[in-house]
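Researcher: Please generate the 3D structure of the following complex. Treat every line as part of one assembly.
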Amino acid sequence: DVQMTQSPYNLAASPGESVSINCKASKSISKYLAWYQQKPGKANKLLIYDGSTLQSGIPSRFSGSGSGTDFTLTIRSLEPEDFGLYYCQQHNEYPWTFGGGTKLELK
Amino acid sequence: QVQLQQSGAELVKPGSSVKISCKASGYTFTSYDMHWIKQQPGNGLEWIGWIYPGNGNTKYNQKFNGKATLTADKSSSTAYMQLSSLTSEDSAVYFCARVDYPGPLDYWGQGVMVTVSS
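Model: Done. Output below.
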Protein backbone atom coordinates (compact mmCIF):
# COMPACT_ATOMS: atom_id res chain seq x y z
CA ASP A 1 0.00 0.00 0.00
CA VAL A 2 1.13 3.57 -0.63
CA GLN A 3 1.92 5.28 2.65
CA MET A 4 1.00 8.96 2.84
CA THR A 5 2.92 11.09 5.32
CA GLN A 6 1.41 14.44 6.06
CA SER A 7 3.08 17.34 7.89
CA PRO A 8 2.81 19.24 10.10
CA TYR A 9 0.44 17.44 12.44
CA ASN A 10 -0.67 20.74 13.98
CA LEU A 11 -0.53 24.22 12.54
CA ALA A 12 -1.50 27.46 14.28
CA ALA A 13 -2.09 30.59 12.23
CA SER A 14 -4.03 33.85 12.23
CA PRO A 15 -6.61 35.08 9.70
CA GLY A 16 -4.87 36.76 6.80
CA GLU A 17 -1.77 34.58 7.02
CA SER A 18 -0.72 31.98 4.47
CA VAL A 19 0.02 28.38 5.38
CA SER A 20 1.30 25.26 3.65
CA ILE A 21 0.63 21.60 4.38
CA ASN A 22 2.84 18.90 2.96
CA CYS A 23 2.09 15.36 1.88
CA LYS A 24 4.68 12.77 0.91
CA ALA A 25 3.89 9.46 -0.78
CA SER A 26 6.00 6.34 -0.23
CA LYS A 27 6.19 5.86 -4.00
CA SER A 28 5.27 7.86 -7.05
CA ILE A 29 1.55 8.53 -7.42
CA SER A 30 1.96 10.67 -10.54
CA LYS A 31 -0.38 13.65 -10.13
CA TYR A 32 -3.19 11.76 -8.37
CA LEU A 33 -3.36 13.50 -5.04
CA ALA A 34 -6.46 15.06 -3.48
CA TRP A 35 -6.92 17.37 -0.52
CA TYR A 36 -9.98 17.43 1.74
CA GLN A 37 -11.22 19.65 4.53
CA GLN A 38 -13.03 18.16 7.50
CA LYS A 39 -15.06 20.25 9.94
CA PRO A 40 -17.42 19.13 12.73
CA GLY A 41 -21.03 18.88 11.66
CA LYS A 42 -20.24 19.34 7.97
CA ALA A 43 -19.66 16.92 5.15
CA ASN A 44 -16.03 16.51 4.17
CA LYS A 45 -15.16 18.82 1.33
CA LEU A 46 -12.97 18.10 -1.70
CA LEU A 47 -10.62 21.05 -2.25
CA ILE A 48 -8.01 19.96 -4.80
CA TYR A 49 -7.59 16.87 -6.97
CA ASP A 50 -5.02 15.67 -9.49
CA GLY A 51 -2.47 17.52 -7.40
CA SER A 52 -3.38 21.03 -8.47
CA THR A 53 -6.91 21.16 -9.91
CA LEU A 54 -9.24 23.31 -7.85
CA GLN A 55 -12.61 21.67 -7.24
CA SER A 56 -15.56 23.68 -8.50
CA GLY A 57 -16.80 26.17 -5.92
CA ILE A 58 -13.61 26.20 -3.86
CA PRO A 59 -12.09 29.65 -3.32
CA SER A 60 -8.95 30.47 -5.28
CA ARG A 61 -6.99 31.09 -2.07
CA PHE A 62 -6.60 27.30 -1.99
CA SER A 63 -3.95 25.88 -4.28
CA GLY A 64 -2.12 22.61 -4.70
CA SER A 65 1.20 21.73 -6.21
CA GLY A 66 3.49 18.77 -6.67
CA SER A 67 3.75 15.49 -8.49
CA GLY A 68 5.41 12.14 -8.01
CA THR A 69 5.92 11.82 -4.28
CA ASP A 70 5.81 15.36 -2.89
CA PHE A 71 2.76 17.58 -2.72
CA THR A 72 1.75 20.81 -1.00
CA LEU A 73 -1.53 22.47 -0.16
CA THR A 74 -1.26 26.23 0.26
CA ILE A 75 -3.94 28.45 1.70
CA ARG A 76 -3.37 32.17 1.14
CA SER A 77 -4.98 34.86 3.27
CA LEU A 78 -6.66 32.54 5.75
CA GLU A 79 -10.33 33.15 6.43
CA PRO A 80 -11.97 32.18 9.75
CA GLU A 81 -13.87 29.36 8.03
CA ASP A 82 -10.61 27.71 6.90
CA PHE A 83 -9.73 26.39 10.35
CA GLY A 84 -10.23 22.66 10.66
CA LEU A 85 -8.70 19.35 9.67
CA TYR A 86 -7.04 18.72 6.32
CA TYR A 87 -6.25 15.36 4.74
CA CYS A 88 -4.39 14.35 1.64
CA GLN A 89 -5.33 11.18 -0.25
CA GLN A 90 -3.78 9.36 -3.17
CA HIS A 91 -6.18 8.25 -5.90
CA ASN A 92 -3.58 6.66 -8.12
CA GLU A 93 -3.85 3.04 -7.05
CA TYR A 94 -5.94 0.80 -4.81
CA PRO A 95 -6.18 0.67 -1.90
CA TRP A 96 -6.61 4.40 -1.78
CA THR A 97 -4.77 5.79 1.24
CA PHE A 98 -4.91 8.96 3.27
CA GLY A 99 -2.41 11.08 5.13
CA GLY A 100 -2.73 11.29 8.89
CA GLY A 101 -4.26 14.76 8.84
CA THR A 102 -3.24 18.30 9.76
CA LYS A 103 -5.17 20.32 12.30
CA LEU A 104 -5.19 23.99 11.34
CA GLU A 105 -5.96 26.01 14.45
CA LEU A 106 -6.51 29.64 15.20
CA LYS A 107 -3.45 31.24 16.77
CA GLN B 1 -27.54 19.45 -5.79
CA VAL B 2 -25.71 16.24 -4.96
CA GLN B 3 -26.58 14.93 -1.52
CA LEU B 4 -25.63 11.75 0.29
CA GLN B 5 -27.82 11.18 3.33
CA GLN B 6 -26.58 8.49 5.68
CA SER B 7 -28.56 6.57 8.28
CA GLY B 8 -28.41 7.24 11.99
CA ALA B 9 -25.96 6.24 14.66
CA GLU B 10 -25.84 2.58 15.67
CA LEU B 11 -25.07 0.91 18.99
CA VAL B 12 -24.46 -2.77 18.41
CA LYS B 13 -23.17 -5.75 20.38
CA PRO B 14 -19.88 -7.52 19.77
CA GLY B 15 -20.23 -10.40 17.36
CA SER B 16 -23.29 -8.95 15.65
CA SER B 17 -23.70 -7.28 12.26
CA VAL B 18 -24.90 -3.87 11.23
CA LYS B 19 -26.10 -2.46 7.91
CA ILE B 20 -25.79 1.26 7.27
CA SER B 21 -27.22 3.17 4.36
CA CYS B 22 -26.39 6.08 2.11
CA LYS B 23 -29.24 7.58 0.10
CA ALA B 24 -28.13 9.54 -2.95
CA SER B 25 -29.97 12.39 -4.62
CA GLY B 26 -29.27 15.11 -7.14
CA TYR B 27 -27.47 12.91 -9.68
CA THR B 28 -27.80 9.65 -11.60
CA PHE B 29 -27.07 7.07 -8.91
CA THR B 30 -26.15 4.31 -11.35
CA SER B 31 -23.48 6.32 -13.14
CA TYR B 32 -21.04 6.92 -10.28
CA ASP B 33 -19.02 4.73 -7.96
CA MET B 34 -19.90 4.87 -4.29
CA HIS B 35 -16.99 4.52 -1.91
CA TRP B 36 -16.93 3.85 1.81
CA ILE B 37 -14.38 5.18 4.29
CA LYS B 38 -13.73 4.45 7.96
CA GLN B 39 -12.58 6.95 10.58
CA GLN B 40 -11.80 5.76 14.10
CA PRO B 41 -11.93 8.33 16.92
CA GLY B 42 -8.79 10.44 16.81
CA ASN B 43 -7.49 8.50 13.85
CA GLY B 44 -7.21 9.14 10.20
CA LEU B 45 -9.22 7.83 7.31
CA GLU B 46 -9.20 4.32 5.86
CA TRP B 47 -10.59 3.41 2.49
CA ILE B 48 -12.89 0.37 2.62
CA GLY B 49 -13.97 -0.15 -0.98
CA TRP B 50 -16.40 0.84 -3.67
CA ILE B 51 -19.48 -0.34 -5.49
CA TYR B 52 -20.68 0.66 -8.93
CA PRO B 53 -24.48 0.69 -8.60
CA GLY B 54 -24.93 0.44 -12.35
CA ASN B 55 -23.88 -3.20 -12.40
CA GLY B 56 -23.11 -4.07 -8.78
CA ASN B 57 -19.38 -4.44 -9.32
CA THR B 58 -17.35 -4.05 -6.15
CA LYS B 59 -13.76 -3.66 -5.07
CA TYR B 60 -12.52 -3.93 -1.51
CA ASN B 61 -9.47 -2.99 0.45
CA GLN B 62 -8.03 -6.41 1.30
CA LYS B 63 -8.05 -5.38 4.95
CA PHE B 64 -11.87 -5.29 4.90
CA ASN B 65 -12.44 -8.52 2.97
CA GLY B 66 -14.90 -10.54 5.01
CA LYS B 67 -15.68 -7.55 7.23
CA ALA B 68 -17.57 -5.24 4.88
CA THR B 69 -20.11 -6.09 2.19
CA LEU B 70 -21.25 -3.39 -0.20
CA THR B 71 -24.59 -3.45 -1.98
CA ALA B 72 -26.80 -0.97 -3.79
CA ASP B 73 -30.51 -0.65 -4.52
CA LYS B 74 -31.06 1.14 -7.80
CA SER B 75 -34.79 1.57 -7.18
CA SER B 76 -34.19 3.73 -4.11
CA SER B 77 -30.78 5.17 -5.07
CA THR B 78 -29.37 3.83 -1.84
CA ALA B 79 -26.02 2.23 -1.15
CA TYR B 80 -25.49 -0.05 1.80
CA MET B 81 -22.57 -1.36 3.76
CA GLN B 82 -22.92 -4.33 6.06
CA LEU B 83 -20.26 -4.90 8.70
CA SER B 84 -20.10 -8.36 10.24
CA SER B 85 -18.57 -10.05 13.31
CA LEU B 86 -18.23 -6.70 14.98
CA THR B 87 -15.55 -5.98 17.56
CA SER B 88 -14.47 -2.83 19.37
CA GLU B 89 -12.05 -2.18 16.49
CA ASP B 90 -15.06 -1.59 14.28
CA SER B 91 -16.27 1.32 16.42
CA ALA B 92 -15.83 4.26 14.09
CA VAL B 93 -17.53 6.79 11.88
CA TYR B 94 -18.27 5.43 8.43
CA PHE B 95 -18.62 7.70 5.43
CA CYS B 96 -19.98 7.12 1.97
CA ALA B 97 -18.60 9.25 -0.83
CA ARG B 98 -19.23 9.54 -4.53
CA VAL B 99 -16.57 9.17 -7.17
CA ASP B 100 -16.73 10.30 -10.76
CA TYR B 101 -14.24 7.70 -11.98
CA PRO B 102 -11.29 8.00 -12.09
CA GLY B 103 -11.48 11.08 -9.94
CA PRO B 104 -11.39 11.55 -6.19
CA LEU B 105 -14.16 11.53 -3.57
CA ASP B 106 -16.13 14.55 -4.70
CA TYR B 107 -19.18 14.41 -2.43
CA TRP B 108 -19.38 12.88 1.04
CA GLY B 109 -22.15 11.81 3.34
CA GLN B 110 -22.26 13.21 6.85
CA GLY B 111 -21.00 9.98 8.39
CA VAL B 112 -22.53 7.32 10.62
CA MET B 113 -21.13 6.55 14.04
CA VAL B 114 -21.11 2.85 14.83
CA THR B 115 -20.37 1.94 18.43
CA VAL B 116 -19.68 -1.69 19.30
CA SER B 117 -20.31 -2.31 22.97
CA SER B 118 -21.92 -4.92 25.16
